[in-house]
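Re: your question from the hallway

Yes, I did run it. Sequences:
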Amino acid sequence: MSQDHNEESVEETELEAEAETEEESEDETEEDSEGGLDFSEVIDEVRGVGEIARRNGRALVQVNLKLSELIEHSLKLSSRPSTAAESSPAPSRGFEALAEALEGIDAALRALEKIPEPPEPKIHIPDPEPAPFWFWPSASKPLRPSVTLEPYCLQDELAAVREGLRVTLSRILDNLRAEGIQPIEHAGVFDPKFHRVVGTVPGDKAGEIVDVVRRGYFKMQDNVEVVLRSSLVIVVSASPERIES
Amino acid sequence: MSEPKASGPIVGIDLGTTNSVIARLTGSPLRPDVIPIDGQRLCPTVVSFESGKAAPLVGFPARNRLLFAPEETVREAKRHMGTDHSYNIHGKMYSAPEIQAAALRYMIEKASAAFGETVNRAVITVPGPSSIRTSGKRPGWPVSSRD
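Structure:
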């Protein structure tokens, strides 16, 4: 038992040393006493990724920087939760920071889902005015078409950011899966064990999940699913007459 | 009133209005060690009666159903302790102590499973109106109280 504990602590200190060397250049995150990581700054920025990117191109450079920062952080994180979970009685304890970061990515992806289609350039070719018969052809109005372009649109760049986020997310999820942590499924009827109802809508199929507000995660421990973070869902109400009244 | 059986572990339960915690003194020097219920340190004091099922849901699953089935779910039953208030669920009447007893029973069962032996004795920290003792009796333990 004590030997196990020693091994764990050795592993943890190694991880911390690794994390510190990585942080020397950036000095952005601070570790609290519980060994968790504070990602609130990065998360806030990632949350705004979609909006910033939509606003202008210069911000896009910033976004890319933030994205690469996040990947670094997430790589550091991915090796964390197992040690944190084993040493504390509640496995959800060390997972909160990571879940926040994942939620940030989810939010950014959701914002980027709505990239508008590129507008078709409007081309207008004026009808040539018939020149008087005595005129030399060059004296008539030029036949130059006028092209109206929408404001510069960052379709490709936005798609690239989205792709980057997707890759980041899948990479983190792969690492988590190796630790036995899985995202909660949202197919079909809501299960009170995994899903927390945060809203109801009227409808026919009571309990059917209509929307997912926040993704949740669970961990397999001794063949029992332990919910680390419940999903927040909106479901079809069990009693439609209550909503009407 | 019969005396508690003097065997098995003793747990401490903070029976809160919103959340409850169950813990046990361990180690040397003695320190309270929270017993996780369903992997969580806190257990919401919410009880939800699914229609057609004998055992009610307690804790996070019950809290998760709160908005989905509000007429089947009871929370903050502690507020009605010591009053005549009763909850009508599927046509059956439950008093506040009965609701609290369901929550207590669930936590005790989980703690027993975690220890591998039956928990017979518990210290429940609540302001002590007599109805709390009543809810303590319902899971089938003797209650010795200090008012």
